[in-house]
Design a protein that fits this description.
Na+/H+ antiporter like fold; Cation/H_exchanger_TM; transmembrane; Na+/solute_symporter_sf; mainly alpha; transmembrane helix
């Protein structure tokens, strides 16, 4: 692989990203979906060189850690006084509804109860990167979008807890799952986020008088991601924790994550293009009736769960049916859960992988479209 081919490929990918960005702003199609479709086509044609596709893991961790910091930055205490209860109630209700509806529906279909329970936990995972990018593309900032950002900030934490507990139950006696692993991963991530966020809140933004420099922002992101991978804890939760601490404790900051907002988009372009290229469209053919039922159950569960959670939390009436619709995207977290579940339940490994990858492709492509529709149709008062 010659160096010039690498540069040409990266240049072409950024041009595609620019085109997707412009087309997304001029149409009602989320740029996330456009990038995934372009990546899917490039992967099918095999035109992305191996050294570029080999960087997918690095780019995905980097892009998602950027997203984690921004999600944490959305958890301002002064905003949470208004939306905090709503965020917790809606997110928990959606996760519980997903677990109950998907598991019960698959069991009634004749699926092995252990497999059904694990698949219901995988269904609880979301796509924070896609959701936050759709919100940013919409240009809408109101109570609905702030609540939505808060929900995706905590949603995967609930999902990880639910997945760990469900997998422990399903794999009981197999010796594959440690029941305290969820406490280690989440607790360790919280401690790591605090270890980065506390000094970060005090040290960043001093040189430029109120705003962290780009180099400060990059150092926080890469330190958090690297330490999380080294400690084998969730870099998403660590990044969200650090972001929340910094945005609430750094009173000298004007806009704590302004530079991250500028830096992240080039990484996101490469991430979504390579994510699309890594999708195996043939997996959709393997999902069969169970996959179609799973998709229908997940959609139903999230819409009903979001609606019930919105009622319980006192959300404005007009936005209540929209929370579940806005939270349909699903991406890499679900695939990661599937890989862990396949190792713990080897007898169901093939079905878990095929079903999760196949349905994730569907949710990754049409989910952002529905999120953008929901955001534009929500009129929650500020």
């Amino acid at each position: 692989m010659e160096t010039e081919i690498l540069f040409l490929t990266l240049g072409a990918m950024f041009i595609v990203g620019l085109g997707a960005d412009q087309l997304g702003h001029r149409t009602r199609i989320p740029r996330v979906t456009l990038l995934l479709l372009c990546g899917l086509l490039a992967g099918y044609l095999g035109i992305i060189p191996a050294p570029v596709t080999g960087a997918y893991e690095f780019l995905s961790v980097t892009a998602l850690t950027f997203v984690a910091f921004l999600l944490g930055g959305a958890l301002r205490i002064r905003d949470l006084r208004i939306t905090g209860r709503r965020i917790i109630v809606i997110s928990l209700t959606i996760v519980l509804a997903t677990l109950l509806v998907v598991a019960a529906g698959l069991i009634l279909l004749g699926v092995d109860p252990k497999l059904a329970i694990v698949l219901s936990a995988i269904a609880s995972a979301t796509a924070p990167a896609a959701t936050t990018d759709v919100i940013r593309q919409s240009g809408i900032a109101n109570e609905f979008t702030r609540t939505l950002e808060g929900i995706v900030a905590v949603d995967d934490a609930w999902g990880l807890i639910a997945f760990s507990l469900c997998l422990s139950f399903a794999a009981a006696g197999n010796g594959h799952v440690n029941e305290i692993s969820v406490l280690t991963e989440i607790g360790g991530a919280l401690l790591l986020g605090a270890a980065v966020g506390l000094p970060g809140a005090f040290l960043t933004g001093r040189i430029s008088g109120g705003q962290p420099l780009e180099i400060e922002a990059l150092s926080l992101v890469f330190l958090t991601a690297g330490l999380a991978l080294w400690a084998e804890v969730s870099f998403l939760i660590a990044g969200m924790t650090a972001g929340a601490i910094i945005v609430n404790m750094a009173s000298h900051h004007e806009r704590a994550f302004h530079e991250i907002e500028h830096i992240q988009w080039p990484f996101m372009i490469l991430f979504f293009l390579l994510a699309g290229a890594s999708l195996d469209i043939a997996a959709l053919a393997d999902v069969g009736l169970i996959g179609l039922v799973y998709i229908g159950l997940r959609i139903t569960a999230r819409i009903v769960g979001g609606w019930l959670g919105a009622i319980l939390s006192g959300a404005p009436t007009q936005s209540r049916p929209l929370y579940g619709i806005a939270l349909l995207p699903q991406a890499g977290v679900a695939v990661g859960m599937a890989l862990v579940a396949a190792r713990a339940l080897p007898e169901h490994a093939g079905q878990i992988i095929a079903l999760t990858i196949g349905t994730t492709i569907a949710f990754e492509l049409f989910g952002p479209v529905l999120t953008l529709w929901a955001v534009r149709h929500a009129h929650s008062p500020d």
